[in-house]
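Narrative of activities, Objective 1.

The group set out to show that a structural description can be obtained from nothing but a protein's sequence at a throughput compatible with the screening campaign. Below is one input-output pair from the validation batch, recorded exactly as produced.
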Amino acid sequence: MASGPLAGTRIIEMAGIGPAPFACMVLADMGAEVIRIDRPGGDSSGEWEDATLRGRAARLALDLKNPEAVAALRTLVRGADALIEGFRPGVMERLGLGPEALLAENPGLVFTRITGWGQDGPLSDRAGHDINYISLSGALHAIGGPEAPVVPLNLIGDYGGGAMLGVVGLLAALVERGRSGRGQVVDAAMTDGAALLMALLYGLKAKGSWQDRREANLLDGAAPFYGIYACADGRHLSVGPLEPQFHAEFLRVLGIDAAGWPQMDRAQWPAQKARLAEIFSTRSRDDWVAAFEGTDACIAPVLSMTEAPDHPHNRARGTFTGDFPQPAPAPRFDRTPSAIARHDRPVTELLQGWGLTAEEIAGLVR
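Output recorded for this entry:
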């Protein structure tokens, strides 16, 4: 039985890659009953090892070129609270499953569309991936060293700007539906979302407090007290004592006289950064972690994916879980805790709960 604040909420997921599966994982962790509509004939071997596919109540392989499968999906929609899809604009419409058609079946449906470029605009029908979408937002340009940007995994576009804001939009639309009784379309574009994540930096730039080039600002690696340093063993420390009191503690542990080390004198940042690099290179990462233990100097080890699940803080909080180390559900709720759902109800019974008759289910099997 699902637990979590979304228990009783029903979501249809149209199979895809990137942000939509991650969004549906978050919703399933929070207790939503998610049915994933897969493409028929696809090789799903090993897919359940992908943590973003966890918690689904069922996975149905439907040939949506078959009118009977389309009719069955429309029936499922009548019992759903929301649908999430990540196709290019127009694909769902060509299948007869666009917002107009499905909102006619269920006027309370929240139809959530997560795409790279959005549902309109000159690029809306173009192919692309996370790295392309964040290029247009200014985010990719801002990340990296002076010579070139770096690839920030697919965290900013797919997951931050796409999936997370898609979930926020879906949940906001469900709250509004509680007042109006009406569903609506949520257009979550990664270009929009990545730009929104940059709101603080665009505000600083407008005030003249942020330069439009890499490694020239407070939070992009230019400041000696906000960056990453290599240690003697080749591993790294993250350093971030921004506030004066934390910076003073940082200098105290290193044995540096604060009187001769002005924190906000940008002219001295390059020399200070070089000196810190020299200091940190003299000891191993874990030696430095021990030296800063118990202080508010804002120091943390840069852990590998192998190391992270075994860190004492992560172990104490249960940040990772599962048969193989995977992130546990987040955020946490004290009264309706989330959990990775384990569904053992027969699919036939599940589908009947969504409104399909035994005859319709038999037709799907055929």
